[in-house]
Amino acid sequence: MLLLSPFLFLILSTILPNIVAHPEKQEDVRSPQDIQARREFLHGAGDTLSRCRSALNGRSISEKAIKRRAQWARALRAKDGILVDKLSLGRRDFGTVLNTDHEQHRSGLGSHPSDEELFGGRIDCVLQPEVTVGPYWVKGEMVRNDIAEDQPGTPLYMELQIIDTTNCQPLSGAFVDVWQANATGVYSGVVSRSNGNRYDLANKERTYNRGIQKTDSDGVVAFKSIFPGHYTGRTHHVHLITTIDAGKTSSGTLSGGHISHVGQVFFDQDLTDTVEQDYPYTTNTQPRTPNRDDRIMQEESETMDPVFKYVWLGKKATDGVLAWITIGIDPRAVYHPRAAATVGGGSK
Ligand SMILES: *[C@@H]1O[C@H](CO)[C@@H](O)[C@H](O)[C@H]1NC(C)=O
Questions:
Q1: Res 191: pLDDT
Q2: Is 258 left (phi over 0), alpha (psi -120 to 50) or beta?
Q3: Cα of 185 to ligand 1 centre, how many Å?
Q4: What domain of life is recorded for the organism (predicted)?
Q5: What domain count does the chain have?
Q6: In a domain, 212, yes or no
Q7: Cα of 12 to ligand 1 centre, how many Å?
Q8: What number of other Cβ atoms are within 10 A of residue 179's Cβ?
Q9: Which of 34, 60, 144, 267 is at a distance of 20 to 30 A from 278, taking alpha carbons?
């Protein structure tokens, strides 16, 4: 028996990390309570969405949003030396999620679309049930807006606006934590069989494509990143967690507060198809899962449209994408998602 225990330890230490850090497995396990909670959530979601729709589409919120995004797009284009009058622009149409050819909207646009055409349109907030837990969420990430680091890929500028569903107004002072895979579908900070090369132990120390921002008075955070790549079993997506009443520590991360939202945001199929045609996305050897086969996206799309609206920033896909979405959260909700790791290897 005594001889067995080191052997057992060896076996367990080989097997356990893979079980613990396997995100797809985590997502599949649902307790009856989770399923019931989700049912209740979906039941109330329609009411909340229609209640907030008129508030969000009131002049002050929608005009500010159009101005903000148009200014950002102009600044980005000017910075990269792209000629504004030669842009080929696309946008996604609101209210459509799957199996829609968005190309028709792109070619339907005039050559000089107005800011209103490009950045306006009805604002609906996205509500997300907590059951979409965060695989590869790493606790203790830095508060910073540039999360691209040295990762090669198509530039992605994301604007996320957080709405308080109790009053349908922008939620300021909330911390939004985002994380995503790199161009070849690997998350930083986690070493696991299902995340790139599991023998690349140095990946534990990497922090690319992760970061946290605090919402401003319009409930808005912005990040500069690269367009995420795909990985086995999932379509392209960005994860987010919103924390309320938290503070920023002297070392630049979060402390305190409670998590009120855990979600994932997606991209149009034709957008990901286009991005995937360029290097280094072309070097990704993992099999692709189209949007229509992504179970999390399907679930989220049952009641709402969890897909980024976007414009291309230039003539080529590699010039980058500006994407935005409005997310409704109830700041009183308290969730306890499980982290896959903690920066610096501290306790969870
Ligand atoms: C993505 O990250 C992994 C792990 O750090 C790395 O090996 C790979 O080269 C990265 N992909 C690209 C395109 O740089």
A1: 93
A2: beta
A3: 8
A4: Eukaryota
A5: 1
A6: yes
A7: 28
A8: 28
A9: 144
Instruction: Note whether residue 232 is domain-resident.
Output: yes
Q: What was the pLDDT predicted at 105?
A: 37
Contact 196/23 with Cβ under 8 angstroms?
Answer: no
Which residues are near ligand 1 (CB < 6 Å)?
151-152, 182-184, 186, 196, 200, 203, 206, 280
Least confident of 46-50, 62-66, 172-176, 183-187: 46-50
Classify residue 2: in a domain, yes or no. no
- DSSP for 244-277 reads ES-EE-TTSSEES-EEEEEEEEE--HHHHHHHTT
Residue 38 lies in a domain: yes
What is the rounded distance in angstroms from the CA atom of residue 153 to the CA atom of residue 143?
A: 22
Domain harbouring 138, CATH code: 2.60.130.10
Take atom 3 of ligand 1 and give the residue whose Cα is closest.
186
Ligand 1 geometric centre to CA of 159 (Å) = 25
Q: Is the model's pTM score more than 0.85?
A: no
Q: Which atom in ligand 1 lies closest to the alpha carbon of residue 200?
A: 4
Total count of residues recorded for the chain: 348
Section 181-203 average pLDDT: 94
Of all protein residues, the one whose alpha carbon is nearest to atom 11 of ligand 1 is 184
Atom of ligand 1 nearest to the CA of 203: 5
Instruction: At 174, list the tokens.
Output: 């909330």
Residue nearest to atom 2 of ligand 1 (CA): 186
Distance from the CA of 30 to the center of ligand 1, in angstroms?
Answer: 32
Where in the sequence is the domain holding 240, given as residue range(s)?
A: 8-342
Ligand 1 atom with the smallest distance to the CA of 153 is 13
Instruction: Give every CB contact of residue 160 below 8 A, 6+ residues apart in sequence.
Output: 176, 178, 220, 221, 222, 223, 240, 265, 324, 325, 326, 327
Non-local (6+) Cβ contacts of 70 within 8 A are 115, 118, 119
**266 CA to centre of ligand 1 in angstroms:** 21
